[in-house]
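ok trying again, last paste got cut off:
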Amino acid sequence: MTRESGAAAQSSVAVRAEAAAWLARLHGNDRTAADEQSFQRWLAADPVHPVVFERMTELWEQSSRLKSNVLSRQRGKLAHSHAQAASRRQAWLRASAACILIAMLAFAFLVPGLGGTTLSSGVGERRTVKLDDGTRVTLNTATRLRVSFDRSQRRVLLQSGEARFDVARDEAWPFVVAVGEQEVRALGTSFTVRKIVDDIAITLIEGKVSIAPADPVTAGPAVSQAVVLAPGQRLTLSTDRPATLDRPDIERATAWQRGLISLDRTPLAEAVAEMNRYSGLPIEIGDGANEVRVSGIFQAGDSVEFARALARTHGLMIREEPERIVISGHAR
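nice, full thing came through this time. structure:
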C-alpha cells in the first residue's frame, strides 16, 4: 500500500478486514507468541494499521455482549456433553462467533451511516481529533458531530456547535460536511463550520469549498444553488435573514481555537449569548443595558471577568449570584 494512495487506502476495506481478522485471532485460545510477533509487524507496516485496528477494537468491544450471550446459550446446551466434545464444540463456537463479528464489522464499514463515530465536546471544552483519513477536526464548546466514511465519500454531520476541519487531501474521495440543509464539499482545505440553533456560518481559512443544498428540490431561500468560497470568505445563513457573504478578520473568527472570544462592536445581547456558550454560569441582561456594544478580547468561559470588564468600561451594574450574573444599568 503506497503513501500516494492517500486517504482512500487508509480506510480501505482490505485494511479493515485485516484488522478484524487480527482481532479474532488475538482473542482466540490458540493465540501464540508467533501470532503476537506477526501482529506487531503488521501494525508497524503502515501507520494507518494502528488507527484502523483501534477503531475495529471499539466496535469489537461494543459487540462483545452479543458474543457473550451466544456462547453462554451454547454452553447451556452442552452442559451434559462429554468434556472433550464440549471443548471441541466451544472452540468451534468461538470461531463461529468471531466470523460473525468480522462480518458485522466489515458490514458496518461498508454501509453508509453504520459504523459511524459520534464526537462531542462539553460546555467550555475544546478538543482536537484526528480521523482515520488523517483529517484533523477541532471541536469548539458544546459541539456534536457524526463521522461516517464509506467508499464513495468522507461525510460529517455537524449537529450543533462549531468545528474546524483541516482536511487530508484526496481528490478521489470527497470530504463533505452536512449542516442544516446544506453540504460543504472540500479538498485539502481548512475551514470552520458553525451551527447555533438555525444560524449557520462557514468560514474558509485556506483552500476551496463549495456550499450547495443537500436537496435542491426542497432547498430554502438561503442558498438555492452552489456557492464557492475563496480563502478568507464567510457565508452566513439564517432562517430569518438573507444569506450574506463577507470577509471577517480570520484571527477574530478563529480566536476560539486559542480559548479566546474576540468581539468588535458586538451588540450586548449577542456578546452575552456568545459568552454563555462557554460557561455554566450564565449572564443575564437587566434593564437599561441593551444599547451597549462590546469590543475586546475575552477569555472563553470567564463570565465573571467579562461582566466586570463591561461594568468598568460602560458604567454598568452587575449582580453576582451563585447561579447567574445579572448586568443592568445605563451605559455612560
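cool. Residues 161 and 195 are 5 Å apart (CA to CA). Residues 3-110 form one domain.
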